[in-house]
Design brief:
Layout (H helix, E strand, L loop, with lengths): L2 E2 L6 E2 L30 E5 L4 E2 L4 E9 L4 E3 L2 E11 L2 E17 L11 E3 L6 E8 L5 E11 L3 E12 L26 H4 L3 H4 L12 H6 L4 E6 L9 H14 L5 E6 L1 E3 L5 E3 L1 H7 L6 E2 L2 E5 L5 E6 L4 H9 L7
Length: 329
């Protein structure tokens, strides 16, 4: 279990003043080279994906906000990536993958039926996500994000993400870590260390998500859907909704997998702060930082089938669960 201090570790969350910030994809302190300057725009693109790497198709997401801090929601966006160099220096930009990204709403918020529009947090909040994006070289990639926004017209913004040679935290194809995450059966565990919402509610609101350890699921050969999130202390306001989503999925697909919530903080208010051991095992980056929330689907063979960072589509996760065979009793 790792102690976390602000001087040596940053917990990277997805938020801006009103709920969305850059989930940094960089390791170390080297500045990212940038591509050509983008024209003046009414929007800002904020990276919402972590641990991007070379070779495999991956999801890449950006949050879009206006300079006034409003969200851009609904519809679709276009992503075009250029390789712009490494920590050693920039290069002449080289065109890379491009993709159409769809809007993924925060669980419980409207999905929308029209094109991109400026919204308040109650009207719409989420990210634009492209799937099956493949990077062919480690380094920095600049994405040009373009949308046709109602009332604003065609708008574009640039943001840079880092891509490594290989994933630095567990990824699809890796064996799952047999962690002994905290459960309701551990009478000596602080309730808020099992689920941070217990700090305000006085009880764990979703005990069904805290009955299994990852190690037990692996030992019994059961598929598992595991969400790493801190509902109370998450700056982005995404952690609570994604845990609620997993609880809803557990009620619908309880015959396909076991469902586990791993609270990120063992003691948020300690000095220094303390991260839960299971979260530390899965999410610690090489530089000592973390990203969350994360969702992992583990197969009955103990191999990671898929993973999602920051925000994800309920329908997409439901389809992955439905594809699993029913578990034996």
């Amino acid at each position: 279990m790792g102690d976390v201090t602000s001087s040596r570790t940053r917990v990277i969350l997805l938020a801006v003043a009103i709920g969305l910030v850059a989930a940094s994809c960089t390791n170390g302190d080297d500045p990212a080279p940038t591509g050509p300057s983008a024209p003046a725009s009414a929007i800002v693109a904020i990276p919402a994906s972590s641990d991007l790497y070379v070779g495999d198709p991956q999801r890449v997401a950006f949050g879009i906000v206006t300079h006034e801090g409003a969200f851009v929601s609904f519809g679709a966006a276009e992503f075009a990536f250029e390789f712009v160099g490494t920590a050693a220096g920039s290069v002449e930009p080289r065109p890379g993958p491009s993709a159409t990204a769809r809007f993924v709403p925060t669980y419980g918020s409207p999905e929308g039926t029209g094109g991109p529009t400026v919204t308040t947090g109650s009207e719409g909040r989420g990210v634009y996500e492209a799937t099956d994006v493949v990077f062919d070289e480690a380094g920095f990639w600049t994405a040009t994000v373009t949308l046709d926004i109602e009332g604003l017209g065609a708008q574009g913004a640039e943001a840079t993400v880092a891509v490594t040679d290989a994933p630095v935290i567990p990824a699809p194809g890796d064996p799952a870590i047999p962690s002994q995450n905290l459960t309701v059966d551990l009478s000596d565990a602080p309730l808020a260390a099992i689920d941070s919402r217990a700090a305000t509610k006085g009880k764990i609101p979703d005990e069904a998500l805290h009955e299994w350890t990852i190690a037990e699921a692996l030992e019994q050969g059961r598929p598992a859907l595991v969400v790493f999130a801190t509902p109370v202390y998450c700056v982005s306001r995404f952690c609570g909704p994604v845990v609620d989503m997993v609880e809803d999925l557990a009620g619908r697909f309880g015959d396909r997998a076991v469902f586990i919530h791993v609270e990120f903080w063992r003691d948020f208010n300690a000095e220094p702060q303390v991260v839960n051991a299971a979260a530390d095992e899965w999410l610690r980056m090489p530089d000592g930082s973390y990203t969350e929330p994360w969702l992992y689907l583990i197969g009955a063979d103990g191999i990671i089938v898929d993973r999602w960072s920051s925000l994800w589509s309920e329908a997409e996760v439901a389809a992955a669960l439905e594809a699993l065979p029913p578990m034996s009793a």
